[in-house]
Each structure stands twice: as structure tokens, then as C-alpha cells.
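task queued by scheduler; priority normal; single chain, no ligands, no partner chains; default sampling; output format set to C-alpha cells
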Amino acid sequence: MKNLKVFVSIALVFSSLMLSAKINRKKSSGAPGGGTSNYSIGPFDIYVSVQQPVNTAIFTGGLPASCDEGRVLDINVKNLQGPITVTPLNFHVNGPPCPTYDAHGKRTPANPPPNTVANLSGTIKVNAANIPAPGTTADAQFGLKDDGYWTKCSNGVKTQYPQVVTSLYKIHSLKLVLSPKPASVCKGTQTIIQVAEIYPATGGTITWQSMSGKIAITSSSNAKCSIDYVSSGDDVLVGTLTVGGATYRDSVKIKCGEVAFKQAKYCEFVVDDKIDLKTLLTDKSVKTDLEWKKSKNGGAGVDISASPIIDLKTYAPGDVEVVTVKWKNTTCEATATFKLFGLALDIPNNGVCDGAPLPFKVVVTPVDPDCPNLLATVGGLTPKSKTTVASLGNPAGTTVLEFEATGGVGNYKVKIMYWYSDVATNCNDLGRYKLWAEGTARGKALKTPEYNITADASGACVNGGASVTRTFTGVPNIQPGREAAGARRFYCYVSAQNTFARSPQGATTIDCHANSQYRTMIVAEENYHVGQIQGTNGVLCNALWLLANVYNAQLNVRYYGATQQEAIDNCTDAFWAARDAEVARSSALIVYPAALRCAVEAEAKAAVRSSHHAVMRCSYPRCP
């Protein structure tokens, strides 16, 4: 008896796996409705993707069926389970009828008719709406049940042999997850994109692709992909998992950029201003998703991660700010050093005599060779001064100090230092000032500290003298003589005035700066003293260097000697001694605070109208 044959050929669209099931109709003498034979094939692995729900056909095509004489093939889909559908649901094929025989047992017709062959189309597919969740596997199956029968042509007895062939499937839903998301790659660095999740874990292949060419893929595997910076901008890295013809993609948005400061070092003055660090990055630098840190040299660091701002006024000159910026999710980092400075004055000598100039420099502090021309960036640099207390006046009538640039940036001098009185007696030696300089940096006010400077009007700076250079001139007439010859004695005496005469002369010495407000006054006073000495100004010095105390006292007074020369020498020495004694007497009368000296000074100061520090109470406080 020939067998009924049904061939089912299943082509898997994704896996290209060809399956074949053969259902054999077995001959049996049993009665119709006998026991059912069950068979199964599979399970077969089917890979699907929710990203491609249209590509879910497991099989589509024809199902050839062959049935011979006296046979009926009636195939139904039974026990459908899982997310699949099968069409058509029923296949029915009638074979040729049983042959007839004559009385001699010969077939009519003599040759058996050919089998009935049917090519029934069908489709097996995964339901698009019921594709398993990515990363999971669902079981599916269906059975092809043969409910047909065959007829025993000799006696017409019909016999059923029901049998079921069950196809089993594993429906795998692909999944791929990349990390981190989003990601960044910076110039000069590499970034690695990891496969955080993959399903199934084995059997597939991951391919990688840059969508915009801003990155270059340097190495890749099923676990990770290493990318390099090509150019700035946004890119997308796509990873595609392919298993059994099905694909699942995941992507990472890539920001491609660079981070760099325009300068490695910044020289800044400490002013009431703030620096937005983002403005100091190069034009090509990314300006978002940045992490900022700042450390202070010599002190605690200040967190600026929330706002990348440096507040300059919170720091002192000499502090060095090292600022680091990191682009998030990268190893890209840039550092800049901010050196902070102030202004100061360099004053070689902060105290000078009244009338003298005072040179000084405006300098940047601290000195740093990395910032050599910082002073030239200061706008409106101007020296300024003020008195430390209220002025009670001075001969010049001003305490306004004038300044003059002396060549080179920051080089100045006070043209004239003016003493001024700060006590009621006008007798203070020093006129005290505050000196500083102002300017602008970053459009904000910049100022040096205030320094103490002084104008000195003490005797070391404002002084003069009138000295007596001559009191007498000429020589007297000295007459030698000898006593009686028996006495053998020689003598000598002043016999006449001759050219000897009282002739006082004086000279001045001025110890005072040429621009001192006191110079004219001191010169006038000392010249008046010379007039007093020489008798042209008043009579106070007429009692000095008296001729009578020299010539009259020595007239006709004899001086002896063993020889005539000895007598002459003794007479001469006595005369000059009398002169020197008179000079000494006169000098004693004008030693401060002798009454005559006080009178002489008072007369001279009144005559030239001395004021302030040159008046009697300041110059000669011990005079009444």
C-alpha cells in the first residue's frame, strides 16, 4: 500500500534555516478512529526585533501534498500557542478513487491513476503586535494534524490514522543598550562606548558606525567601541546587533569638541571685578557641560563648580589662582594660572628737605617675570597726595604737591616737597603727607596703599649762618728802646696806632635747598647779620671788638728782653694777645643764648619778617 506523503518546507526569513517535516500515512488494519500518533520537531530559534516588526515571517510559500487512490488528506492546524499565526488553517486533498476489476481480476483501467498533488500556500509568522519585549524569549508552537483516511479498495473499509506533527519555536527578541548616554570625545583624547546590555549574549555580531564623521572608530568589538576626535560638532555612534538576520540598533549622541584657554597664564590686577572663565576659552572650546575647579596657592581652594566666576576682590596680590576645567564624561582637561597683582610705590627716601624733589616709582607687586608689562595696561595712572592733618600754614601758602613724570612707565617725582605747620607754635620739624597712586584696570578703580612721606624743615635742612671773618686789620707802630748802658736792658712798646684798626667783616653760609620756601628768608636774615657785624645794620654789635680794649690798653706799655729782638717779640705777642682777648670777649657775648645774641637774632628776624619755623620761638626757644 502506498503511503500518503505530506512535505512541509519552512524557510526562516532571518536565520535562513530550512526545516522539513515529513508526515507518513501508515497502513493499518485497525478500525477508523484508531489512536493518534504524535510527533514534534524543533524547537527552532527565531530571532526578531521590535524595531523591525514587518520582518517577522518564519515561513511563507507552498505546502505540497500528495494523495493516492482511495485516500483523503485533511490537515488542520491544531494547538496553536505563542505569538505566532499560521494560515491557511485547513488543507484538504482527495486522492483518486479506488480502481475497478473485471471477473478475471484485471484493473480497469489497467494503469493506476496518478496521485493527486496539491500545492497549498501558507504563512507562519510572528505577530507584530505580540513580539516579545526586547531582551526576552517566548515559546511558540503549532501542530499539523492529519484527520484524513484511506479506503481499502478491495472491500471499501475506511480506516483513519490521525497523527499530529508539532513544530516548536523559541522566539528571541533582540536587545542592545550602549553606555554612557550621551557621551563626549575631546580633541587629543579617546572615549570608550561600552555595551551595557546585549540579548542574546552570544551568537550575534555588533557593527559600529559614525553618522556624521566627527569621530573616528579606532577599535571595536562586541563589548565596546573606542572613538577618537576628528572635528568639533555633534555626531551619533550607532551600534547594530545582528543575529539570525534580525537587527537591533542602539545609538549614543556624541558631542565632539575641545577645551582650552586662550592663554596659559593670566596677569590680573586685584580690583572689584569678576572674571567669567567661559569667556577665556578658545572660540572652538565647548561652553556647556563643563566642570570647574579652582585652587588657591597658599590657602583653601574655592569651589566654583556651580558658577565659573573668579571674584578678584576676594584675593590679595600674590595669590595665584590655578583653574581647571573638565568637560563632563571625558578625560579632556585644561588649566590656566591666574596671577594676581596690586600696585605699590617704591620710594627710595620717603623723607626729604623742604623744597627738595621726591622721586618715586609706581610698581606692580609682587614682581613676576611672567607678567613684565602689566603696569602699561593701567589706565589713567595718577599720583595723589594729602596732608595727614590740617595744615596751619607755611611760607609758601600751599601744601598742594605737584607731580612730574620722569621718563619710563611709572616713574615720577614730587617736584617740591612743602613743609607745613601742624602745631600752633609753627615749630614742628616735619610736614607729613600721604602719597599714593590711582588708576584703572579692567575698567575698575585700582589704588596703591597710602605711604607716609615728610618734608623736613629742621636745622639739618633749613639753616644758614653769618660768620665773623675779620675783626681788626693792620698793625700798630712798635718802638724799641734801651735803658742806660749800665743797665744793659732792652725794651719795646706800642707808640702809635699806625694801620691797626677795628674792621669787622662777616660772610654767610646757606644750608637750604634752592627751592625751599625758606631760602629767600634765610639768605635775607644772614645778610642782615653780616650788616650787623659790619655795623651797617643797627648798633648791637658796636660793643664788640673794641679798639680801646686792644690799642689803648697796650699804648706805651713796655715789654723787656735780654735782646732787642726779644723785647720786640714780647711786645708784639702781648699786643696780639690783647686783640685775641677782645675777640674772645666779644664772641662770648654772641654765644646762644646770651642776651646780645638773642637781641641780634630778634633784630634780624624782625627786619626780614621771618615766619613759621624761622621765627624766634622755633629757632631760639631759650631766648626771652
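post-processing summary
- The helical segments are 519-534, 548-554, 564-589, 595-608, 616-619.
- The longest helix spans residues 564-589.
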